[in-house]
Amino acid sequence: MFRFAHIYYFYLLLLIPVLVTMLVLFLIWRKRKLAAFGERTVFQQLMPDYSTGKPVFKFILLMIAYAFIVIAMAEPQTGSKLEKVHRKGIDLVFALDVSNSMLAMDIKPSRLERAKQDISRLIDRLEGDRIGMILFAGKAYIQLPITSDYTAAKLMLATVNTNSVPVQGTAISDAIEKAMGTFGQSNRSKAIVIITDGEDHQGGVLEQVEASGKTGIVTYTIGMGLPEGAPIPVYNGDVQTGFKKDRDGTTIISKLDETILQQIASVGKGIYVRANNSSTGLEKIFDDINKIQKVEIETKQFSDYEDRFQYFIAFSLIFLIFELFVYDRKNQWFSKFKPFEKEII
Questions:
Q1: Is the dihedral of CA 68, 72, 74, 76 positive or negative?
Q2: Is 206 domain-assigned?
Q3: Residues 236 and 127 both lie in one domain
Q4: Are residues 228 and 142 in the same domain?
Q5: pLDDT tens-digit profile of 229-271?
C-alpha cells in the first residue's frame, strides 16, 4: 500500500505553472527588446556561441527537480507489514433529544450542552465499539450512521443544536425505530442510549422498545432535568430575549417526566439514570454496557509504513547536477567543459 503522509505539500506544485507563465512572458519581452535594437541575424553574428534553447532546457530541469522535492516533502510511504487486528466491541447508538425544552438551564450550562459534553467524554473512552447518533424532536433523523471513526463522531456532535430538527415535539418512538434501522444486520451486541427530558408526544414508545428488544437491542434512558424543572429560554440569534410562554402569557416550566423513561428502560432491559449538575449518569450506563457480551471482529490494516522520500531527493539531485553541466556560463570551472560543442582540431 502506498500513501503520502503530508498531502498538503502538493499545493506547492501550483507554483510551477506560475513560473512557466513568468518565463514565457520574459522570453516574449526579451524578444521584443532585442528586435528594437536590430535584426536577429546581426545578434547571431555578434554572439555566435549564444544558445536560446539552453536557458529553456535549464528551466525544465529545475522544474523537474523542484517537483521531486515537493513529492519528497509530502513523504511518500509504503506499507510494509500487513497484520490482523482483533477487536471486541458493541454497536452503540445515542438518541439525543434536541427539542427546545433541552435548552432549559436547570442542568448547567443547559440540558443539551451538558449531554453533548458527556457524550464527547464517553466517546474518548470507547475502544473497539462502533457508535451512531440519532437526533429527535417532533421527528427523528440519523445524524451519524454506525461508525468506528470517533473523530468524525465528535465533529458531528459539536454541530448539534435545537435547529438540527425543525419539527418540535418529543418523538421517542420514532428515534428508537431509526436506531433499529441504523444497526442493520450486524451480529454484534447492540444498545441504545436515549437522552431526553422525558415527555413523549407520539405514543407507542413501549411497543417500539419491546420490538427492538426482540432483536437483541438493550435500551438505556437518561433523564435530563431536575424535579423542579426550569423555564425554556428564547433566543434571537445568540441573545436571550426571555422565556417561552403559553397562550395566557404564563412562563412555561419544563419538568422531567421520569415515569416514561423508567418504563422504557425496564422494558428495554437497560437502566434509567437521572442527570444532575454533577453527573448525567453516562458513567453508570457505560459501566453497565461494558457487561454486555462484546463480539470479536477481525480487521486487516497496514500497520507499519516505511518512508520512501529518499528516492525522490536523489532524483532531484541528479537533475540539479545535470542542470549545472547544461548551463555553465557563470561558472569558470565548468566553462572549460562544453559537452554541447565539438572540439576543433
A1: positive
A2: yes
A3: yes
A4: yes
A5: 899 898 888 888 899 898 888 998 988 888 899 999 999 999 9
Cβ atoms within 10 Å, residue 177: 18
Locus of grid cell 477481525: 298
Range with the poorest average pLDDT among 177-191, 278-292, 305-319: 278-292
Query: What average pLDDT score do residues 289-315 get?
Result: 74
Rounded CA-CA distance 344/30 in Å is: 32
Per the confidence metrics, is the pTM higher than 0.90? no
Q: How far is residue 55 CA from its own chain's centroid?
A: 46
Q: Determine the residue type at 107.
A: I
Query: Taking residues 50-78, what's their average pLDDT?
Result: 86
Residue with cell 445524524: 143
Residue 147 buriedness (CB in 10 A; 0-12 / 13-18 / 19+): middle
If one counts the domains in the chain, the total is: 2
CB-based contact 85:298 (threshold 8 Å): yes
Tell me which residue range forms the domain holding 48. Answer: 2-79+305-335
Residues 112 and 223 in one domain: yes
